[in-house]
Structure formats: C-alpha cells, structure tokens
Design goal:
This protein has about 280 residues and is mainly α. Helices cover about 75% and strands about 5% of the residues. A two-stranded antiparallel ribbon has the order 1-2. It is globular and about 50 Å long.
Length: about 280
C-alpha cells in the first residue's frame, strides 16, 4: 500500500479515525470479493481482472497527464482490458502478445510527448501482472491456493510494516521516495509474511515450511519495492494518490502496488522454472 506524499499535512484525530474507518470498510468489501473471484476462477476472475486493469490504465493516464477522455487515454484503457480478456479466452501467451503490440503502437503514437516512456512502462506494469494473475491461477502453474497465499503474504506485509513501523519508528527506509517507511517496518512486514508462508505450508498448500517462510519474507521485500515504485511515480507527477476510486485507500494502484510486483515476479519464476513455487524444497 503506497504512502502519502511527505507534503501532505497531518490529519486531525477525528479525520484520522474517519480515514481508518473508510479503509477498514473498503477492505471488508474488497477482500471477500477478491478471494471469491480467485476461488471461482475463469471466466469471472478474468472479467474482474480486465475491469481492474482498465481502472489502473485510466488511473495511469490521469497520473501521467494523458487526457482520459481523449483517443490515447481511451486506447490505454482498451489495451489493458483487451489484453486481459484475450488471455481469459485464448490464453496468457496470446494476451501478452496482444498487450505488447498494443503498448508498442501507443508508444509510437505518443513518442513525441514527454511522458512516452512512462506510458509504455506503466501499461506494461499493468498488463503483465494482470495476465500473470490468470497464469498463476491455472492449476498447472499454482492454482487458487497459490494465489490466495500470495494475497495473504501481501496483506500481512502491509499490516506488519504499518504496525511495527508505528510502534518502533527509527531510521527511514527511503526518505526521498516514501518518507513514512522505516527499516523496522520493513522487517516487521517480512516477519508477518514469513509467518503467513509457514502457516500456509502447514495448513493449506504444502511444501517445506522453512522454505515457504523464506520465500514469503523475500516476497515481502518485493512488495515493498512495488509500493515504493508507485510512490516514486506519484512524486514524479505531483500526485498524492493515483485516484479516489477506493474510499480510504486512494486508487487501484495505491491498493495493488505490492501485489503487482509480487505477481509479476512469481509469474516469471514459475514460467522459467516450469513449476509452482510452492513445490520448492
């Protein structure tokens, strides 16, 4: 979950409570929906992923200064959603090819504008993990258990980092990018993720408990890097949040930045090794 910009004024206690209440209520709605979609699988997971990809593309256009109602903004949304729908119907490979071709075409159309590389990179960062979600949900590449484990790893990382960072404080992790993050928070997030990995190994997905704990702690670092990458992008374009689509959380990018990074890495590892990450010993 991304941090707010350092320039944002501190909230009054009442405003803090209202913001926290909105965050909790949003999570109560979103978490069961996400878990149900992952459990049910295609086509509903694909349709949901396409909708989320479209929303993130809209946010990215808005963030980078592309008119969301113009041709380029609409093309960005269609490229993101269309590639995920192709992956849903035909397969992850076909969806990746369609998405890549669409991004290259958009890059050519926008090549004379200053944020062209940001548009290319941002769309790629949306399309690949969105398709990676469908790829990892396939039982041949992990299945629904793997995806739910990844969700809980990312959520535990956010909670552990927030709680330990608040309680311990200490040196800042990356003060120029995300001033509120601390080294203590990072280690707290890693510990929480490691616990999730060990519990998942013992109760649900199998595998070696120690290995799963180490892998989960490593993914916590990856998730935090995704968080900071999104924070850097917002600072680059002078935005506090990617949008206000989710009460208490900001936008889809603000909520999914860590998950995007984790799914992208785990999908790549699974593709290269040819087997599910939970079978590691």
């Amino acid at each position: 979950m991304a941090e707010n910009a350092a320039s944002a004024p501190p909230l009054a206690p009442r405003a803090e409570r209202a913001a926290l209440t909105a965050r909790v209520l949003s999570a109560i709605v979103m978490i069961p929906v996400a878990l149900l979609a992952i459990r049910v699988g295609l086509p509903w997971l694909g349709l949901g992923a396409a909708l989320v990809a479209a929303g993130m593309a809209w946010e990215w256009a808005r963030l980078t200064g592309v008119p969301t109602g113009g041709q380029t903004g609409i093309a960005m949304v269609l490229c993101a959603a269309g590639s995920v729908l192709v992956a849903t119907v035909v397969g992850a490979g076909a969806g990746t090819v369609c998405g890549t071709l669409g991004i290259l075409l958009l890059g050519l159309l926008w090549r004379d504008r200053s944020p062209a590389l940001w548009i290319w990179g941002g769309l790629l960062w949306i399309v690949i993990p969105s398709i990676g979600l469908l790829y990892l949900r396939d039982p041949r590449h992990g299945g629904w258990e793997t995806m739910i484990w990844l969700c809980f790893v990312v959520w535990a990382t956010d909670i552990g980092a927030f709680a330990v960072g608040k309680l311990v404080g200490g040196p800042r992790l990356a003060p120029l990018i995300s001033p509120k993050k601390t080294w203590a928070g990072l280690f707290g997030g890693m510990a929480a993720a490691a616990l999730v990995g060990w519990l998942a190994s013992a109760w649900a997905i199998g595998g070696n408990g120690f290995t799963m704990a180490v892998v989960s702690a490593t993914l916590a670092i990856v998730g935090q890097m995704g968080d900071m990458a999104e924070s850097y992008a917002k600072r680059r374009f002078g935005a506090k949040d990617s949008s206000n689509l989710i009460p208490g959380h900001g936008g889809l990018h603000d909520r999914l930045d860590g998950m995007i990074a984790v799914v992208a890495l785990v999908g790549l590892i699974t593709l290269v090794t040819g087997g599910s990450i939970v079978t590691w010993r």
